[in-house]
Amino acid sequence: MTTQELFDLTAEELIKRIQASSGLTKFAHRRAKFEGWLKVELIDILVKNGKNALPEIGRIDVSFDTVGIELKTINTNIRFRNVINTTRPITKNIKEVNEDIDNLINAEFVNKFIVFITFPITHDNANWQVHLRRITENLDDYLYSQFQFGDNIPGVIYYGKVQ
Fold first, then answer.
1. Rounded CA gap, 95 and 91, in Å?
2. Contact 161, 111 (CB under 8 A)
3. Would you state the pLDDT for residue 60?
4. What is the domain range of residue 109?
5. How many other C-beta atoms can be found within 10 angstroms of the C-beta atom of residue 117?
6. Per-residue pLDDT tens over the stretch 60-107
7. How many other C-beta atoms are found inside a 10 Å radius of the C-beta of residue 97?
């Protein structure tokens, strides 16, 4: 499976579900993570597309066939309207994403992906680009899509194929 195939299979529906959820808007407003929600929704989308997706096989968040996927949500401390101002450990968040990538490198799956949602942020934010490079240097390729939670809170979903 390619990054593009996984992206095409799941990204649009995940974004629709994010945008439709008033609960996730509350999470974004408070800069709270929601990885459990993301895991449930991704598995639901994959199952509805005929994949036998399962959680927590071999300590990997989601898997099906020869595919292993790790998930993360990254909450930033970038100031945005409609989002409380508070500090968030972005450096720690990036470290955790890279630890998941390392975990995937050692996993037994043929196709290994990291899917992460960053918020509140836009893809082209200069501060975010510095952090993103620390993640993408460990990926074969990546795709992304920008979206908005409710209240015009920006987010970006990334799909990366692990080397």
1. 6
2. yes
3. 96
4. 3-162
5. 25
6. 999 999 999 999 999 998 888 889 888 777 889 999 999 999 999 999
7. 24
pLDDT at 118: 96
CA angle, residues 132, 140, 62, in degrees to nearest 5: 85
User: Nearest Cα to 30, choosing from 80, 73, 87, 83?
Assistant: 83
Cβ-based neighbours of 29, under 8 Å, separated by 6 or more:
82, 83, 84, 149, 151, 153
With residue 155 as reference, give the H or E element that holds it. strand 154-162
Given the DSSP bridges, would you call strands 67-75 and 111-119 parallel, antiparallel or unpaired?
parallel
For the chain, the domain total comes to 1
* Residues in the chain where the model's pLDDT stays below 50: none
d(CA 154, CA 163): 29
Global pTM?
0.95
HSE-CB for 47 with a 13 A CA cutoff: 10
